[in-house]
Specification:
Pfam families: DUF4139. This is DUF4139 domain-containing protein. InterPro entries: DUF4139 (IPR037291). By secondary structure, the protein is mainly beta. The protein is 2% helix and 55% strand. The radius of gyration is 32 Å and the shape is elongated. The N terminus is likely disordered.
Length: 473
């Protein structure tokens, strides 16, 4: 697209809005490393005040982020004052990035000694120099020391060069919308366990918003989208600590939640500032006290089921010794995916970190469980005590002994989870502790282990199969 003679620079108007999609990209939330990140996804809608000239002419909109999907950018004039004939994205990258946004504006170019080299409209800034159109013609300047702008403003990031056909001259409102990357959000939860025998926790819900787009966003109206829309173009902006900014909204004002297609949206109650190179946090829900469940889990094997009976005596002989501590609770409302940090008070009443886990998108009323870590004072030992196969009778018997030890000063209840998966048809023939839960591929036993002591669980299962399922010799 050739540049026409009449060119004007569009300025930024107040009141932009952003729809921001969730991203777990580590590059967005990293506390070290500079520069912007090509991850995350947001759709921006902002009003620009542009100066039109009657007829066909060019104008430039600057102050755009560094990562844009050029095919999805759109500029409209609600009042019908002009229409867009063509557009070109000028990327804010490379050594001339700071000058790219000045394309179409009036500048003064100075030499090493401050002498004026040219004054006029900047047509292009490239590696071969500046192309400036003045009253005496067009000049290519290869060596210069400084550039001054007529308005004293240097746009940052990328710019959009447009050819428009206007019906009149003067100011007009234009609405620009575009997707960008380098910015994303995810939920951040903190649970502080409360003292007492029953599991209770103080639960805080926030949204962490990471901005590495190359642009500051000020007083922007923000809507957060929870869920996972599909993005077809691999080259488009993708959804996947620097200073933390306080939420400007009042403490009692919470985001308004609603459904958007198959997803959930959270519209913030007041505009927020999102400086480039920052992680801002805003509340999702008011803090609340919730019931929870602490579990010490000793698990062997998995839920995989073989295509035929497994009669090999080496199968299913796992002997894990670690007992895993977990925390579970029921979602009080729709909880977007994010990370939950869990704290508990030490003997001096100081909150201490005891584990962190990821929560997936969890609908209201659903269960959420995270792994806190390995219990220090608890251990398990698993030994097989019986194994017999009767091929002619198409049966198989297997038994295990599980020994649990507790080196702590208080009694614990350990959930033992076993997976009888030699074959899909099986029955529990005996157990020293009645199972708390039984499914097609899982046995759960809750075993009480005394302080500074141990407990033993014995159980046996019986497998059967038909002639059609007979395993190979």
């Amino acid at each position: 697209m050739a540049m026409a003679c009449s060119t004007s620079l569009a300025g930024v108007a107040d009141g932009p809005s952003m729809t921001l999609y969730r991203s777990d990209s580590p590059s967005l939330y990293a506390s070290s490393g500079g520069g912007n990140a090509d991850d995350g996804y947001a759709v921006i809608r902002e009003q620009r005040d542009v100066i039109l000239q009657a007829g066909v002419h060019d104008l430039v909109l600057g102050d755009l982020p560094n990562h844009l999907d050029a095919e999805a950018m759109a500029l409209g004039f609600p009042g019908g004052e002009a229409k867009v004939i063509s557009q070109r994205l000028l990327l804010g990258q490379g050594p001339n990035a700071a000058l790219t946004g000045l394309t179409g504006s009036t500048i003064s170019v100075l030499g090493d000694n401050g002498q004026p080299l040219a004054n006029g409209t900047l047509l292009r800034a490239g590696e071969d120099g500046l192309v400036v159109r003045g009253s005496n013609g067009t000049t290519l300047i290869r060596q210069y020391a400084a550039v001054n702008t007529e308005g004293g403003h240097f746009p940052t990031g990328s710019s959009l060069s447009l050819r428009v056909d206007a019906s009149r001259s003067g100011h007009a409102d234009a609405v620009l919308s575009y997707p960008t990357s380098g910015i994303g959000w995810r939920a951040a939860y903190v649970a502080t366990l409360q003292p007492g025998n029953a599991c209770s926790m103080q639960f805080e819900s926030r949204a962490s918003i990471a901005n590495r787009s190359g642009r500051d966003w000020q007083a922007i109206n923000l809507t957060l989208i929870a869920g996972e829309p599909n993005f077809a173009k691999a080259s488009a902006p993708r959804p996947m600590m620097m200073r933390v900014m306080a939420a400007p909204a009042a403490a009692e004002a919470m985001p308004e939640q609603s459904a958007v297609g198959d997803y959930r949206s959270y519209t913030l109650p007041a505009p927020v500032d999102l400086p480039d190179g920052s992680i801002s946090q805003v509340p999702l829900y008011a803090a609340r006290t919730m019931n929870c469940e602490r579990t010490a889990l000793y698990e062997n094997g998995g839920g995989w089921m073989p295509p035929q009976p497994m009669i090999n005596d080496a199968f299913n002989t796992d002997n894990n010794t670690s007992i895993i501590s977990t925390l579970g609770f029921k979602a009080f409302d729709s909880l977007p995916a994010g990370y939950l940090r869990v704290l508990t008070a030490d003997r001096n009443g100081v909150p201490q970190f005891i584990g962190e886990g990821r929560i997936n998108d969890t609908p209201k009323g659903s269960d959420a469980t995270i792994t806190l870590g390995t219990a220090f004072d608890l251990r398990g030992q698993r030994a097989r005590t019986q194994f017999h196969v009767d091929r002619s009778g198409r049966t198989m018997d297997e038994a295990f002994r599980i020994t649990l030890t507790n080196a702590g000063q208080s009694a614990r209840t350990v959930t033992v989870r076993e997976h009888p998966n030699r074959w899909r048809q099986w029955t529990l023939t005996s157990s020293s502790v009645k199972p708390a839960k039984q499914t097609t591929d899982t046995l759960d036993f809750k075993v009480d282990v005394p302080a500074n002591g141990n407990a033993v669980l014995d159980y046996a299962v019986h497998y059967t199969w038909t002639a059609d399922d007979q395993p190979q010799s």
